[in-house]
Amino acid sequence: MKKEVSAKAPDENFAKNFVSLKGKVTKVGAFAYTASGKAVVEVTLAIPQELFGESSVGYIALQFEGDMAEFEAKKLKIGHKLEVTGILWSRKFKNRRNDPVIETKVIVKNIGGKNEKNI
Fold it and tell me: pLDDT tens, 21-49?
């Protein structure tokens, strides 16, 4: 007997695309505007990570948009601690050499603790 699959919307407990990260800023990209006029700035965040007992550092691309991008582009410096929440965004495309590329970044929605180099 086949089980019917419902097409109804998931309830509120369904897993959502939500990312929470805490780390140190290692790169602040150039402030720019998209073709549609939206302000953007990309930042790289170094975060501690562990897998199978092995510790390392991961580098995660963050994208700030709108007023948040304008403010953060002026204030963020390399070495600042930063805590953000946002959504994971990914796209696939081919580069100039026709090689497949997968780009993944976090689109920042909220900013938490931010301070000078005091780790």
Answer: 999 999 998 888 989 999 999 999 999 98
